[in-house]
Amino acid sequence: MWINGRTKDTISALDRGLLYGDGAFETILLKQHRPVLLLPHLQRLQKTCLRLQIDCPLPLLRQELEAFLAVEPVPAENAILKIIVTRGEGGRGYRPAGTLACQRILQLHPFPETRHDHAREGITVQLCQHPVSSNYRLAGFKHLNRLDQVLASMELREEVTEGLMFDENDLVIEGTRSNLFMVLANTVCTPLLNKSGVAGILRDALLAAFQHEGVRHHIRSISRQELFQASEIFICNSLIGIWPVTGLITESEMIRFDIGPHTRHAQQLLQAIMAT
User: Fold this and answer.
1) Whole-model pTM?
2) pLDDT tens for the chain, residues 1 to 276
3) Which of 27, 86, 161, 190 is catalytic?
4) Cα–Cα–Cα angle for 263, 161, 237, nearest 5°?
5) Would you call 174 a catalytic residue per the annotation?
6) Choosing from 48, 174, 176, 190, which is the catalytic residue?
7) Of 64, 86, 89, 142, which one is the catalytic site residue?
């Protein structure tokens, strides 16, 4: 692990990222030692820091990142790069004490092993009771406050791969660690994220690919009942790619879904996306 361009494995107990979740992060796939979709990740990180009013010198961060990947041993052919930026240290209480020097943290992690080919066979998901918090000022951004996702993930049964989360109006928003797509009336739909949720890098890339390919798609509010009426459902993020949903556990039943042509087409588009 590097902190501010130096090998280090400790951070101050006064860091505002630890005390208040005051910061942003990105989790990036390393495929054959190459960061996949690096530029969109860094662009989102910069946008999040601007929204949080954290002064993060992006050129310096990129220099540190290149040096880090050049000297640090990558755990395997596929690995995970995590970038964390906190506001740094500065005063007790919520209000930061003046202009602070941000902390830039770089980490490498092994890619988790899975016993199943989720991309080919599909997964089972569960509806979570814990809601996504709504705040239009932070909607879409990947900040360090992930307590909603932590609590929702604790609900998941052992046989379940992912959980789906709703807002206070019972609109489906996202997975605990993924974005959601579904097919309704032969149109690929994904939830509107103007009040809550994270606008994933792969979600944005898929939407751009759908536009380029002429695939009918729509970003809109989606109710719980519409979720049950979908003909196909799949989830995505920049680490796992695209996983079809073949089973959905509700409070009273298991609903089955087929892996349909829209899902397989999205997986084909993914190959070109990941090569950029």
Assistant:
1) 0.93
2) 999 999 998 999 999 999 999 999 999 999 988 999 999 999 999 999 999 999 999 999 999 999 999 988 877 788 999 999 999 998 788 988 877 889 999 999 998 877 679 999 999 999 999 999 999 999 999 999 999 999 999 999 998 999 999 999 999 999 999 999 999 999 999 999 999 999 999 999 999 999 999 999 999 999 999 999 999 999 999 999 999 999 999 988 899 999 999 999 999 999 999 887
3) 27
4) 50
5) yes
6) 174
7) 142
